[in-house]
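INFO batch 0412 | record 1 of 1 | parsing
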Amino acid sequence: MKKSLLIMMALAACSALYAQTQPENSDDRVACYRMMPAVRKIISIPDIDGYKTLKCDFHTHTVYADAQVSPEGRVQEDWYDGLDVMAMTEHVGIHKTGIDFPDRNVTNRKAMAEGAKWGMIVIPGVEITRAKPFGHMNFLFVKDANVFSEDRYLTDADGNLLQDDEGRKINNMETLMDDISAAMEQDCFIQWNHPGWPDKKCDMYDIHREMLAKGQINAVEICNHQEWYPKVLDWFDEFHIPMTANTDQHRPVAVDYGHVIRPMTLVFAREYTLESVREAMFAGRMVAFWDQTLAGDATWLEQLVHHSLKVKVIDAKQGRIEVTNISDIRFETMYGSHMNPVVLYPRSAIIMTVKKGQKIEFLNCYTGRKTLSTNLW
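INFO prediction complete | emitting tokens
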């Protein structure tokens, strides 16, 4: 009897709850609650000592130039995709979608206003486009985008573009120098974009060496969209210039990346503020992350490894340990007598035999041409 009474009470409670969630006339309208909410992707990459690890994309575009998504839509995409920081870097002087925007600050204003609604840090920027040998560069933390020139290439008296012997457009160096000077006056962070595009040659020219000597290039993209440039590792060895990984996104993010983790730059900032992000970037506290590959200064890579991998000692004398990867980064290691890489998969654990203080090589963590070598315990 008591059991039957409890069952009846439970059924009555369920019926009351069901009734509260239904419209008055369920034949007209029934809520499909499981279909309604979109959810933010959570990418697990731990903080390091004294710094927050922020997931960033410093290269994106919108319908105001040659892309398919609005500034507001781009911010929403990036928030849902698990980013903490994004940069709005619209092209100067490109209107392929037919939208002419005399005030070039409009995309930055729209994106920053949208970012405030989502708790998303948006860096105002522009992309300056020239033919090689200069190439493309992003000016980040722009105060006024209207000062940069649309007069990009030299023309003859009839307005025809002038080309060199290889058919490349000839840069208007006067306006280019003015643009660089304007970026320096606005204290911009200057990122050299996709050095291996569009001619499949990843070359550093005299103008880049001159800019580096003057402190006019603050980072270089080692990965852009769906390609990366190994030569940038040589430049890191030579100049120790920070490396970034970005999407250069034009299409909707889901079209290009789906459920995989997109390229991003990991920035180690003291606080989650625009000014703190800026300070970290100029200080070079960054690591590029793409296709389960990391590249950057050994100091930051080593900390990232040690905070991602938790070690439980099973037998100290034998060196038998349990290693748990709490991150979404897949680490490929080589150590001891193993002939093939030992993989530490995201959010999983393995048993390893590694003596205390023994060095392990992390094959997917580049510190220049060399890969990171460190101990686990």
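INFO post-check: The chain has a mean pLDDT of 92.
INFO record closed
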